[in-house]
Write a sequence for this structure.
């Protein structure tokens, strides 16, 4: 039975649901088992060769991040992108409770000392990403210089200096034993993998089959906008509610909305998709913050998704003009995602 026939059988009536689920289970197990032997990784490469994942950085900022992310050996474009995403979610007008401002979240005192005129227009504007993004890269490199003789990973030490100050890093002989600082370093380094375009095969997720199994059990459930599957909602889901619940069933916590789920791991290309990958759709193929739909890939060019009001959780094709890309969810990638980002 083909996937197309399986989908048609599901839509005809409940009497053939068992056949449909059996087919998909075989498809998933077969493909996933074959994939289990694939080893590889994101493979970010040497500084200067790191390319950004498709759409991970909004098009308006991609050139800036790619250019300034190569300013010094301690940073790369994916690392700079991860830092900016963690700080502001690409929002150039955000102000934090600590009065940190703009896309790079500089406090006024730090900006006064370290802000630069990145676009050469004669001013230093913390609200202008053309100044703030170059300033973030410049400040990172300056901090890397301060801690260059400290033992350990120079990029980790630079990030720790950004969070806790260079003096503490020097005094501690590396990343200080401060939970906030250690978490800051871990988060940025984990997110870095989500913003880099893979240069080799991406390791398959061990939790993928379990996530698909969960989603299979929900086939035929009516869609509910904002649904997360609670009893009060009648066990109904919207698209990102379903993917969130599916991965929660295997111990991975994803953010609530699709555009944040995109950053939960590295991004395999279309011809490298494996069952369990999240697949995303958008009307703007240059900007992951504009993603509006997500499903769980099951193989054969199909996904399980909760498509829209009036429909049920079902199989749909992924090869449509609005196909944006995919994410292979990892525990570290999901755990690193910030929970405070503004929705755009």
């Amino acid at each position: 039975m083909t996937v197309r026939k399986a989908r048609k059988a599901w839509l005809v009536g409940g009497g053939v649901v068992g056949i449909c689920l059996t087919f998909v289970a075989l498809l998933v197990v077969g493909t996933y088992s074959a994939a289990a032997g694939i080893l590889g990784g994101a493979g970010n490469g040497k500084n200067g060769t790191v390319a950004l994942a498709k759409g991970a950085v909004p098009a308006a900022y991609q050139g800036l991040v790619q250019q300034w992310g190569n300013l010094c050996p301690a940073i790369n474009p994916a690392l700079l992108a991860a830092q900016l995403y963690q700080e502001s979610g690409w929002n150039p007008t955000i102000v934090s409770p600590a009065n940190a401002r703009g896309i790079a979240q500089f406090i006024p005192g730090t900006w006064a000392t370290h802000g630069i005129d990145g676009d050469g227009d004669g001013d230093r504007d913390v609200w202008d990403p053309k100044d703030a993004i170059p300033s973030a890269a410049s400040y990172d490199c300056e901090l890397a210089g301060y801690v260059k003789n400290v033992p350990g990973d120079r990029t980790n030490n630079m990030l720790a200096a950004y969070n806790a100050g260079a003096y503490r890093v020097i005094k501690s002989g590396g990343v200080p034993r401060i939970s906030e600082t250690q978490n800051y370093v871990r988060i940025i380094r984990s997110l870095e993998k989500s913003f880099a375009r893979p240069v080799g095969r991406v390791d398959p997720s061990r939790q993928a089959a379990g996530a698909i199994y969960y989603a299979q059990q929900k086939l035929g459930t009516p869609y509910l906008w904002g649904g997360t599957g609670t009893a009060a909602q009648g066990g109904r889901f919207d698209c990102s509610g379903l993917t969130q619940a599916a991965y929660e069933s295997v111990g991975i916590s994803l953010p609530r909305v699709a555009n944040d789920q995109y950053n939960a791991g590295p991004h395999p290309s279309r011809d490298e998709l494996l069952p369990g990958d999240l697949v995303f759709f958008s009307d703007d193929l240059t900007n992951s913050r504009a993603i509006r739909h997500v499903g769980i890939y099951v193989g054969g060019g199909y996904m399980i998704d909760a498509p829209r009001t009036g429909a049920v959780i079902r199989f749909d094709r992924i090869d449509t003009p609005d196909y944006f890309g995919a994410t292979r969810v990892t525990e570290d990638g999901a755990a690193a995602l910030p929970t405070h980002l503004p929705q755009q």
